[in-house]
Amino acid sequence: MKKNYLKFVAVLSLLVFLFLQSLYATGGKLPAYAKHGMVTSSSIIASEVGRDVLKSGGNAVDAAVATALTLAVTWPSAGNIGGGGFMIYYSHDGKATAFDFREKAPLAAFEKMYLTPDGKIRNNSNHDGILAVGVPGTVAGLYLAHQKLGRKPWKELVAPAIKLAGKGFPYTWALHRAVTSYYAKIFKKYPSTAKKMLKKSGQVYEPGEIWRQPDLAKTLKRIQKYGRDGFYKGETARKLADFMKKNGGLITGEDLAKYQAVERKPIHGTYRGYDVYSMCPPSSGGVVLVEMLNILEGYNLKEIGWNSALYLHLLTEAMRRAYADRAYYLGDPDFNPDMPLDKLTSKSHAAALRKSIQLFKASQSDSASFSQIYEGDHTTHFSIIDANGNAVSMTFTLERSFGSKIVADGLGFLLNNEMGDFNPIPGVTDSRGHIGTPPNRIAPEKRMLSSMTPTIVAKANKPVLLIGSPGGRTIINTVLQVILNVIDHEMNIAQAVEAGRIHHQWLPDVTSFERWAVSKDTRQLYENMGHKVRIRNYQGSAMGIYIDWKTGLITGAADSRSPDGGVAGF
Ligand code: GLY
């Protein structure tokens, strides 16, 4: 009798603990817990919107639509309807698929469109200004995923974003700080952007003030009513095309009408008995991630020890080799049908590369060969698990923070500057960071190469780890290190997401360490092997969920590197 009573008290305490945990968001080293479903994103408001969709019977894709559209309202630096991205979906019974809604070059784009007659990039125009805008893909991608896999009515899923845009929400400290310290000046260059992002007086909203975006609410209403066509046809498309024409941009009504999101087969690899599903080209994320995992599988990383000098050396050498392959081989699959994806993700390719790695001695990246393109690091990721065990891992972006900083008159959303992810100078590849290799050169309707790495790790046909991050080229290495932290080092999801990380990308031949990631004497040992180090403040902002199928417990973490982020579960 007493034993049963104690058991009852223990179970009750656990349930009360789980309930309390799931009521509020948490970042930091303590994961959030839930029993049924969870969303983690860069905006706690968006996570809660997604959680409410799950709670009211929606599935992971329904929650992804609602979360993504809410992020376009509450996390405008990267959440978007004016950009693009990728979604990995993994069903409760082990089926994986991917949705590609990467932006495209407009029909009028051409290979040397950013170059002066003497072959230099004109005024950074591939990153700045209206010519940097690619044809947006987000609405088409969300709509396609919803048509294929959604359960709740589309209209219901758009409603929370409309409400938040129309009625407003309290401006956050993080938004205030970012806009005050840097962006306000740039926003003032475009009256339509200033109208959205600043007060009528031109001042920045104060933390806690209610921020309303009425034009965005109107655009979202059209998307709610007409679905995909609410963006790519009718009033929205007309206003966008007119704005482009008036301001020297390239995107036309035809570009918008022709845009299609695509369902693709994700990259699949294995790592120490786990299945890894991640994004295929036009993202390089999945290929590079699987290639690095394959190389590292040949070492006992647990025994070598987390962030020891040898561990960092092996990671660096794996990164160097996989990023070199990225630059050489990868681009839009519709324009590069012969990319050797099977070879690049094979165990035999990894074994051959591993043979070229010397223990305790750095290799050299050959700058005469090829290098990396610049990529902005302002992207955003969210992860979702629903009550039936279906999972979504989605990353989307405007490229730089607030994209091109351009809002088309009357539409209320920021446009991307994703054209900067193409190789701008054909044939010019050097150690300063130019890359001119063919797979990622500009062509009409081509998708620019990405590093976004939305990933789902599965075991026995069940999703166990959902992970992704912003961070441009660093994304793939952030995702890699979170996976290693969980699988090799047995960290909980919050520890895995918070732990300090490093980045190497073949060229330039230097490793960046997060400021607090590595001790001084470890750094010394690492440099003694021949590596160069620079320090950066932070790398990425991972949003992870871990599911323990034995206990049924879902744990999640929103990286504390994302100031407005949070987890919401139930
Ligand atoms: N613009 C960042 C990326 O696509 O990876």
Provide keyphrases for this structure:
570 residues; single chain; seven-stranded antiparallel β-sheet; binds glycine; Glutamine Phosphoribosylpyrophosphate, subunit 1, domain 1
Report the β-strand fraction as a percent range: 15-25%
What fold name goes in the CATH topology slot?
Glutamine Phosphoribosylpyrophosphate, subunit 1, domain 1
Point out poorly predicted stretches: 16-28, 370-374
Which strand order do you get reading across the main beta sheet? Answer: 1-20-19-15-14-9-8
Number of separate strands:
21
What is the alpha-carbon Rg in Å? 23 Å
State the major sheet.
7 strands, antiparallel
Q: Identify every distinct bound molecule in the structure, by name, code or SMILES.
A: glycine
Indicate the CATH architecture: 4-Layer Sandwich
Count, helices: 19
- The CATH class is Alpha Beta
Distance between the termini: 32 Å
Tell me the structural class: alpha+beta
Give helix % range: 25-40%
Q: In the residues, how many domains can be counted?
A: 1
pLDDT averaged residue by residue: 93
